[in-house]
Every structure is written in C-alpha cells, then in structure tokens.
Write a structure and sequence with these properties.
By secondary structure, this protein is α/β, with parallel strands linked by helices. It has two domains: 236 residues, Aldolase class I (TIM Barrel); 66 residues, Arc Repressor Mutant, subunit A (Orthogonal Bundle). Helix content is 34%, strand content 19%. It has ten helices and 13 strands. A hairpin with a 2-residue loop joins β12 and β13. α1 runs parallel beside α2, α2 runs parallel beside α3 and α6 runs parallel beside α7. It is globular. 37% of the residues are buried. The mean pLDDT is 90. Bound molecules: iron/sulfur cluster. The site of iron/sulfur cluster (SF4) has 10 residues, from loops.
Length: 307
Amino acid sequence: MELKYIFGPVPSRRLGKSLGISPIPRKTCNYSCIYCQLGRTDKMTGERKEFFPLKDIINEFKEYLKESFDFDVVTIVGEGEPTLYSKLGELIKEVKKITDKPVAVITNGALLSSKEVRDELMNADIVLPSIDGYNEETAKKIDRPLGTIHFKDELEGLIEFSKEYKGQLLLEIMLISEINCDKNSIEHFKEILKKIKYDKVYLNTPVRPPAENFVKVISQEEMKYAVEELGGISIDMLSSGEFFSEIEDSYEAILNIIRRHPMNQFEINSFLDSRKEKLGYNIFEKLESDEKINCILYKGIKTYRLK
Ligand code: SF4
C-alpha cells in the first residue's frame, strides 16, 4: 500500500512506537529554526490551509488500520508545522473516532497564540510544544520565525492553553551551545516554566545535522545542570526502540523511513540486525551512491536522509 500521509511506526523516545500522520507538505513551516534537521525552511508561511483533503488522510488511515495496529500512539507531526493544517481540529476528532490509541500533536507552539488553534488542540490526548527562546531576542535567533510571530504572544497562548487543557502537556526545550544554555538562560526558562501547567519538560540538544553549521550541542555538564535546575528529562536519557517497517525489502524500507525520519549509520545497522536479513551488498555504499539520498557527516557520524 502506497502511503502518502502516514509513516512509521518510528520509535519515539517520548511516545513509544509512534505512527505518524503528516498533513502538510514537506518543509512548510512558520519557523526556520537554526537546528532544523530538514535544513532551512523553503516554504515559509503563516497561512493555515487544508493542504491535503482531510478525507484523503482519513481514508489512508482507515486503509492502514486494516493491516496493522502495532503502534502505541498516533502522532500528528509534519516535516514542518502541523498546526498550519487548517483542519487540524477535525483531523484529531476523526482519528479518535477510528482508533482508541492516544493522539499526540507535536508543534513548535507558534500558533498557540491563536484561540482557534488552542481550541482545536484541546481534543488531542498529548500535545508537545517546544519553547526554544526565553524572550523575543533568543526566540528570533533560534527559531527565525515569520515577522508576524512574537514570542510574547506565543508564550501567553501556551500559558492560556496549559490552564484549560486536560490532556498531557509535554514541553521540549532545545538547548544550543552558547545561545540558550548558560546559567542566566536556565534561570529565565525556570521563570517561564513556573507560569505553565505542564506534565513533563524534555531537554534536547541538536544531535542530528542542523540547518546551520554554527549550531553546536551542549556539553554533558550543561545538560546535567539544566536537568537539575529545570526538573527536566534529557532526551538522551531515554532509550530509543528499534525502527520498524512492514516493507519487505530492507533497502526500500530504509528509503521509506528516511523520507520522514533521518537515520544515522547505527540506527540503520540496528534496523538491519532486527530484520535478520542477509544483504548481498554493502548497504552504505548503495545509500551513498543513490542520488535521491543526502549523506551528511556530522560529529563523525553519517546520517542519511531523502533529498
Ligand atoms: S519548527 Fe520544526 S520544522 Fe519548523 S523549522 Fe523549526 S525544527 Fe524545522
């Protein structure tokens, strides 16, 4: 079955086996984060649209469910910002009608300033917004949002949402060396977190190749300090499960996964190990000579993603 909107399940360190639904075209976002693993955003937009017909996404999901139920959560996540999908609220409701599994939405949080978006997200079981900056200046530096997006509105929206939301609110802060991880920054985050009613805060650092070369991961000491001060969970501390694909041919399965989720050499090796298939060729040579694939050497580790 050719899947256009559904991908995975992929192991998510926060959510378990996560079946993804992407309701927006690739790299459609209202941010262009310096750490984005998709590279610079080429479709910057603040306009919410029904990029793909809701009924097509739901039909694909129904078809998928005829074959597999082996996932823990349905995650609405785009290779971009899923709240830009104008029928997000209906999408969540429709998905919930056809599965008992929890529905999560991963968002950059920019549109939480909008009451309409907040209302739509109320129906999700889990919402995972990110906060990268702690004021207009740091937010602009890291997220490079559209000019119409302001940190203060976003934060007020998130605080507002957190007061009414009944599901799980899992925050993520992306900590970047020399930008938002010093003691002063952590102090600012601490003040912000006091205003939000959340369940957990995850702390991350850009371990996958970022959009900009100057983006650096933070040190272990810095992460430890942030974990202690913010009462957070470092994403590194969570163990990752194995990638999974129903596609029989391992090469095709890898292509399918890296369409949405870049894999590094270790993830590919453990994926192949889990399938116990003997390949008659060198997978890495094949991937590296494939014109559809970008191989990025970052911190001594090769990561593969579809162009
Ligand atoms: S919000 Fe997400 S998709 Fe958009 S630029 Fe930032 S990291 Fe990339």
